[in-house]
Amino acid sequence: MTTMQNKPARGTPLPAYEQIKRHVLAQIESGALKPGDVVPSETEMVKEFGVARMTVSRALRELMAEGVLNRVRGSGTYVAPRQYESTVLQIRNIADEIAARGHRHTARVLALEASDDPNAVAALELGTGPVFHSRIVHNEEGEPIQYEDRYVNPEVFPEYLEQDFTVETPNHYMVRLAPIQRAEFRIYAQKPDAHVRQHLAMEIGEPCLLLLRRTWVGKDVATSVRLWHPASRFHLAGTV
């Protein structure tokens, strides 16, 4: 097992047990640890990370409670089999959807900043801000098809503001770093405000499909996002 590479958020260091959890999750996500693989023992982790046994024990105990690891008495701790849930909507990367149609995706970043918006802080279930905020317009063959207004938990993705989202979408970046354990969706047919309408090159009065989504990494709300789509240029589809 390699040494920890996850960096805590500036000014708000993550507890050591949480850093160990993130490291194990990253190892699983990268494929370095696969379902059924044995995880290094508590003794090995104590030496690896230079922390107390109770710290390692808490990290492993929480990962077991979250269904990430399984402990077999007298044998060891193993990576649990992946659990799949069927939902009406898949969390798909807009760039992958566009590429699957044989088209070119481009993105224009309107904002990438820290925010103290109280509604965003509440949506992410945090006590105080700031949180991270991005606004991005996604284009298919140069035509805007999605306005993304996203708030991100800085404790889960501390380097979010340092990314170039014209190269990699936020969705791809976050899923690459941490597997999503849970998501909730709401969908509305709604007229956009003037700001969104202008960036989506829509006519006055034209409706949008608005998707509201929150996702969880472990017990933390990782992101809260509003996705606006011109109804004339976009449709939502899914399977059950």
TrEMBL record:
Keywords: DNA-binding, Transcription, Transcription regulation
UniProt keyword Lyase, yes or no: no
One Gene Ontology MF term: DNA-binding transcription factor activity
One Pfam entry name: UTRA
PROSITE patterns tied to this protein: HTH_GNTR (PS50949)
Domain HTH gntR-type: 14-82
GO biological-process terms attached to the record: L-histidine metabolic process; negative regulation of DNA-templated transcription
Gene3D superfamilies to which the protein is assigned, alphabetical: Chorismate lyase-like, Winged helix-like DNA-binding domain superfamily/Winged helix DNA-binding domain
PANTHER family xref list: MANNOSYL-D-GLYCERATE TRANSPORT/METABOLISM SYSTEM REPRESSOR MNGR-RELATED, TRANSCRIPTIONAL REGULATOR PHNF-RELATED
Entry protein name: Histidine utilization repressor
